[in-house]
C-alpha cells in the first residue's frame, strides 16, 4: 500500500486543483514524484511585491505531514525572511523544538494540521508584512526598517524581472 | 592537479576535464614510447618523471570517476537533482574532514593512502545513494522489479566490501600496530551500520508496499531501527575516540559527525521514551471515538486527510479526534495534540518553564473568550480561510453534540456522578473555546454531560497515576473556573439522586498531596507572590475542599441509605424538603445543608423542630464564614485574571 505521506500529498494536490486559493498555483513537478512541488505565488496587492509572479519549489520529507516541507524561491528575492539562496524562513515551516531564530513561539509551528495551502498563504502574508526581527536576510531587514523607499525600488525590479519586463530607467 | 580534477568532477562540468586528462595522458604515453621505443623502459621513464606521474595520477582519478559514474548508472539509473545535491554536500564534508585527518597521519601519506581514501569516498557515496533510494521507495507510487534487483545487489556488494575492509584494517593494525588503517577501519564499520540501516528499511518498505492494508506498526519499527543504529554508531564513535586519544591525539576531524550522531541518538532515545508513554496513554486512557463524535466533525482525520471509522479513531482529552495509527506516528515526533497542542504527557502543567503548553485557564469567562487557541491564532495570522480549516470549526461541533446526546440519556446515568463534575478533565483542557462552549450549553440546558465527564474523570485519575511527573496539585488547575458556572447545573440533581444511591461505589476524590514530597524548589515556587505561586496555593485549598465535599457526599449517601432502609414514612417529606430548599440555594450551601438534615432526621422521633432549627443556624454561621472566604478567593482570582491581560 502506498505510504501515508504520498496519499496525503495526493489528497492535498487534488484539493488545490479543485479549489485553488487566490494567487496560488501549486503541484508536483512530475507525476512520478509527489514529494517535489513547484508553486507560483503572486505578490499580494497593495504591497511592493504587487503584480509579481514568484516561482518556488517545495521539497517534502518522506514522513510528511509529521515533518514540514522545505520551501525556497527559485527566482531572485530580496526580503527580510528569505535567505539569499531563496530558502524561506517562517515559523510554519519549522517543527516545534527546532528553532533557528530562537524567538518563535511554538504556536505557529508546523503540525499536521497545516498544509501546503496554509504554507503558501502564510508566505503571501509574509511578503505583505515582513518580520524584520528574523535575520534570514539582514541586509533586507535593515533596508526594510530604515530605507523603505529603497526596499520598494528593489522589490519593483524583482517584480519586473519575474514578469520579464526590462527595468525602466 | 588532483584537487582541481575533483572540484571539476564535483561541479559536474566534468566532460571537459575528462577529455583534457585523456589528451594529456595519451600525450605522455606517446612521448614515452617515442623516446624509449619499448614497453618497460617507457614505463620506467614515466615513473621517474614527476610531471608525467602527476598526469598519470590525474588520469587514474578520472578513470575512477568514470567507473563511479558507470556503476552509478548501473545501480541507480539517472540521479534525481535532489539526490545529486545531497551527494555533493555530503561528499564535500567527507573530503574536508579527511583533509583534517591528513594532519594527524602526515607520515602515512602515500599514493596508496590516496587511493584508499578515494575508494572510501567512492563507497561512501554509494551508501548514501542507496539510503536515498530506499527512502525514495516511500515516495513513489510505482516500484519496478529492476529497482528491487538493483537495491538487493547494491546492498550485498556494499556490505561485503565494508566487511572486507574492516577485516583488512583489523589485521593490519594487529600485525603492524596502529596506523591510518585505524581511521579506515572505523569509517568502514560506520558504513556497515549505514548499509544495515538501508537494508532493514528496504525490507520494511518492501513489506509495506506489498501489503494491501495500512501497516500500523511500521512507524514504530522504524523508530526502533533508528534507535539501534544510533546506538551502534554512538558506541563506535566513543570507542574510536578512546582509541585515537590513546594512540595519537584528539581526532578533531571526527568531532562534527560525532556530535551529530550523539545528538541524533539522544533525540531518538527521547522520542522513543516519550512516544512510548504517549502511545500508552492513548491506548489505555483515551476513548475510541463514537459514531456521534465522528458525525459531529467532518469525519476527516486532519493528519492524513482521510475518512475515519469509529473503531480506528481516538479522542484526545481535548476532544480532537484522529486515527489511532496517525496519532501513533505523530506521537513519535511530538507528544502533543496536533490541533491544539495539548501536551499529552502532562495535560496540566504546573510549571511555566515548559513554554509549549498553553497557559492555564483564567477564571472569568469574559476573559477566556478573548484567548483563542493557538492554532487558530496562527491560522488567522497567516490569513488562512477559516471556513475550510477543520481545526477551527470542529471543537464547537463536538461539544454541542455531546451535550445534546448525553443530555437525552441523562436519566439513565448512574446517580452521584455530578459531584465530581467540577474536577473533571475537560475543564483542564487547553482549548478555551470548547470549555466555554460546553459550559454555556450546560447552563442553558441545565443538563450536564455526565457520561463524558465521568469517563474523562476516570481517565484523568489514571493519568495522574501513570503520568509520573505530574504533581497531584496540578489536578485541580482550573478549579476556580468551575465555581463560577456550577450552580445552575447542579442544584436540581441531588434530590433526584439521593434515594437511589445506596450501595453504589463512588469515584474516590483526589487525595490532597503530601506536602513532604514536594521538593524545595516547588515549595519556594509556591511561596512566591507570583501568579504561579498563588495558583498553586489555591489548588491545594481546592484539593482540600474537594475532600470535604466528598465527605459530605458520603454523609448524604449514608443518610439516604438509612432513610431507604428504615424510615420510610419520613422519606418523602425529607426529599421534598431538600428539593425545595436546595433549588433556592447555591452549591456551597448545598454541601453543608445535608448534615443539618441528618441531625434533624435522627432527632425527629422527639421534638425535632427545635433541634433542627438550632443546628441549622449554627451551620448558617459556619456557612457565612466560608462564603466570605470564598468571595475573597474569587476576588483575588479575578484580580489575577485582569492583571495578566
Ligand atoms: Zn488519519
Ligand atoms: Zn486538541
Give the low-confidence spans of chain A. Answer: none
| SSE order of chain B, one letter for each helix or strand | HHHHHHHHHHHEEHHHHHHHHHHHHHH
Distance between the termini of chain A: 58 Å
What portion of residues of chain A belong to β-strands? 5-15%
Summed up, the domain count of chain A is 1
Radius of gyration of chain A: 16 Å
Low-confidence stretches of chain B: 1-9, 349-507, 568-618
State the total count of DSSP E strands of chain A. 4
Q: Could you describe the 3D structure shown?
A:
The complex is a heterodimer of chains A (169) and B (645). In chain A, helix 3 packs across helix 4. Chain A is an alpha+beta fold and 169 residues long. In chain A, strand 1 and strand 2 (36-42) form a beta hairpin. Chain A has a single domain (4-163), classed as Ubiquitin Conjugating Enzyme. Chain A has four helices and four strands, in the order αββββααα. In chain A, strands 1-2-3-4 form a four-stranded antiparallel sheet. By secondary structure, chain B is mainly alpha-helical. In chain B, 69% of the residues lie in helices and 1% in strands. Chain B has 25 helices and two strands. Chain B has a two-stranded antiparallel ribbon. In chain B, helix 6 (111-136) runs parallel beside helix 8 (181-210), helix 8 (181-210) packs antiparallel against helix 9 and helix 24 packs antiparallel against helix 25. The longest helix of chain B has 37 residues, at 608-644. The radius of gyration of chain B is 37 Å and the shape is elongated. Chain B starts with a helix and ends with a helix. In chain B, 34% of the residues are buried. Chain A binds chain B through residues 1-8, 11-12, 15, 19, 21, 32-36, 59, 62-63, 65-67, 92, 95-97, 105-108, 111-113, 117-118, 121-122, 124-125, and chain B through 80, 82, 135-136, 138-142, 208-209, 211-215, 302-306, 326, 329-330, 332-334, 336, 338-339, 341, 355-356, 374-375, 377-379, 381-385, 388-389, 391. One zinc ion (ZN) binds at residues 301, 303-304, 306, 322-323, 326 of chain B. Chain B: InterPro entries: HRD1_E3_ubiq-ligases, TPR_SYVN1_N, Znf_RING, Znf_RING/FYVE/PHD, Znf_RING_synoviolin. Chain B: It is found in: Endoplasmic reticulum membrane.
Amino acid at each position: 500500500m502506498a505510504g501515508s505521506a504520498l496519499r496525503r500529498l495526493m489528497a492535498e494536490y487534488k484539493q488545490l486543483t479543485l479549489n485553488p486559493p487566490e494567487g496560488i498555483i501549486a503541484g508536483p513537478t512530475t507525476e512520478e514524484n509527489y514529494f517535489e512541488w513547484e508553486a507560483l505565488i503572486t505578490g499580494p496587492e497593495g504591497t511592493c511585491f504587487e503584480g509579481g509572479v514568484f516561482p518556488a519549489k517545495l521539497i517534502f520529507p518522506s514522513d510528511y505531514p509529521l515533518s514540514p516541507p522545505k520551501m525556497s524561491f527559485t527566482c531572485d528575492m530580496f526580503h527580510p525572511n528569505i535567505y539569499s539562496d531563496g530558502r524561506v524562513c517562517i515559523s510554519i515551516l519549522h517543527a516545534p523544538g527546532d528553532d533557528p531564530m530562537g524567538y518563535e513561539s511554538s504556536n505557529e509551528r508546523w503540525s499536521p494540521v497545516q498544509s501546503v495551502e496554509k504554507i503558501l498563504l502564510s508566505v503571501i502574508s509574509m511578503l505583505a508584512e515582513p518580520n524584520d526581527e528574523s535575520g534570514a536576510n539582514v541586509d533586507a531587514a535593515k533596508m526594510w526598517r530604515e530605507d523603505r523607499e529603497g526596499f520598494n525600488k528593489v522589490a519593483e525590479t524583482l517584480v519586473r524581472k519575474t514578469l520579464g519586463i526590462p527595468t525602466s530607467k | 592537479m588532483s584537487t582541481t580534477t575533483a572540484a571539476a568532477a564535483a561541479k559536474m562540468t566534468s566532460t571537459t576535464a575528462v577529455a583534457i586528462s585523456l589528451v594529456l595522458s595519451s600525450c605522455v604515453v606517446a612521448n614515452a614510447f617515442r623516446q624509449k621505443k619499448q614497453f618497460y623502459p617507457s614505463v620506467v621513464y614515466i615513473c621517474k618523471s614527476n610531471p608525467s606521474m602527476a598526469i598519470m595520477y590525474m588520469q587514474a582519478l578520472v578513470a575512477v570517476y568514470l567507473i563511479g559514474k558507470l556503476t552509478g548508472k548501473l545501480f541507480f539509473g539517472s540521479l534525481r537533482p535532489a539526490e545529486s545535491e545531497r551527494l555533493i554536500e555530503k561528499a564535500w564534508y567527507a573530503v574536508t574532514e579527511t583533509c583534517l585527518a591528513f594532519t594527524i597521519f602526515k607520515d602515512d601519506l602515500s599514493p596508496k593512502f590516496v587511493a584508499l581514501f578515494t575508494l572510501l569516498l567512492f563507497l561512501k557515496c554509494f551508501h548514501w545513494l542507496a539510503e536515498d533510494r530506499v527512502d525514495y521507495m516511500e515516495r513513489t507510487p510505482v516500484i519496478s522489479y529492476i529497482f528491487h534487483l538493483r537495491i538487493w545487489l547494491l546492498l550485498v556488494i556494499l556490505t561485503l566490501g565494508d566487511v572486507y575492509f574492516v577485516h583488512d584494517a583489523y589485521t593490519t593494525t594487529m600485525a603492524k600496530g596502529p596506523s591510518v588503517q585505524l581511521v579506515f577501519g572505523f569509517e568502514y564499520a560506520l558504513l556497515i551500520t549505514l548499509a544495515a540501516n538501508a537494508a532493514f528499511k528496504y525490507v520494511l518498505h518492501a513489506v509495506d508496499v506489498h501489503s494491501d492494508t495500512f501497516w500500523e506498526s511500521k512507524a514504530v519499527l522504524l523508530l526502533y531501527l533508528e534507535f539501534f543504529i544510533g546506538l551502534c554508531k554512538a558506541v563506535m564513535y566513543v570507542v574510536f575516540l578512546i582509541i585515537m586519544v590513546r594512540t595519537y591525539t584528539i581526532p578533531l576531524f571526527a568531532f562534527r559527525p560525532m556530535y551529530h550522531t550523539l545528538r541524533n541518538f539522544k533525540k531518538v532515545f527521547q522520542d522513543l521514551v516519550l512516544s512510548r508513554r504517549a502511545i500508552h496513554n492513548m491506548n489505555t486512557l483515551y476513548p475510541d471515538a463514537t459514531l456521534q463524535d465522528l458525525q459531529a466533525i467532518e469525519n476527516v482525520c486532519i493528519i492524513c486527510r482521510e475518512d475515519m471509522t469509529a473503531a480506528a479513531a481516538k479522542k484526545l482529552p481535548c476532544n480532537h479526534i484522529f486515527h489511532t495509527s496517525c496519532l501513533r506516528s505523530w506521537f513519535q515526533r511530538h507528544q502533543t495534540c496536533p490541533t491544539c497542542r495539548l501536551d499529552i504527557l502532562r495535560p496540566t502543567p504546573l510549571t511555566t518553564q515548559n513554554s509549549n503548553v498553553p497557559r492555564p485557564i483564567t477564571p472569568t469567562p469574559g476573559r477566556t473568550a478573548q484567548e483563542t487557541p493557538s492554532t487558530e491564532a496562527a491560522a488567522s495570522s497567516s490569513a488562512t480561510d477559516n471556513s475550510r480549516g477543520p481545526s477551527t470549526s470542529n471543537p464547537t461541533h463536538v461539544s454541542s453534540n455531546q451535550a445534546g446526546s448525553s443530555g437525552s440519556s441523562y436519566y439513565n446515568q448512574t446517580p452521584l456522578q455530578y459531584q465530581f463534575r467540577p474536577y473533571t478533565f475537560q475543564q483542564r483542557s487547553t482549548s478555551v473555546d470548547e470549555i466555554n462552549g460546553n459550559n454555556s450549553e450546560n447552563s442553558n440546558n441545565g443538563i450536564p454531560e455526565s457520561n463524558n465527564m465521568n469517563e474523562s474523570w476516570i481517565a484523568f485519575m489514571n493519568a495522574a497515576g501513570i503520568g509520573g511527573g505530574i504533581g497531584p496539585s496540578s489536578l485541580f488547575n482550573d478549579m476556580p473556573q468551575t465555581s463560577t458556572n456550577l450552580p445552575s447545573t447542579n442544584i436540581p440533581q441531588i434530590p433526584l439522586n439521593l434515594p437511589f444511591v445506596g450501595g453504589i461505589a463512588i469515584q474516590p476524590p483526589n487525595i490532597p498531596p503530601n506536602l513532604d514530597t514536594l521538593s524545595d524548589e516547588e515549595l519556594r515556587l509556591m511561596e512566591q507572590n507570583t501568579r504561579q505561586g498563588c495558583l498553586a496555593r489555591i489548588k491545594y485549598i481546592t484539593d482540600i475542599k474537594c475532600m470535604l465535599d466528598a465527605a459530605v457526599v458520603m454523609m448524604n449517601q449514608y443518610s439516604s441509605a438509612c432513610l431507604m432502609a428504615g424510615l420510610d414514612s419520613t422519606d418523602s417529606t425529607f426529599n421534598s424538603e431538600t428539593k425545595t430548599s436546595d433549588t433556592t440555594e447555591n452549591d456551597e450551601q448545598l454541601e453543608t445543608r445535608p448534615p443539618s438534615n441528618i441531625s434533624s432526621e435522627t432527632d425527629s422521633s422527639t421534638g425535632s423542630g427545635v433541634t433542627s432549627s438550632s443546628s441549622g443556624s449554627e451551620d448558617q454561621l459556619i456557612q457565612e464564614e466560608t462564603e466570605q472566604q470564598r468571595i475573597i478567593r474569587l476576588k483575588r482570582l479575578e484580580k489575577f485574571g485582569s492583571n495578566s491581560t
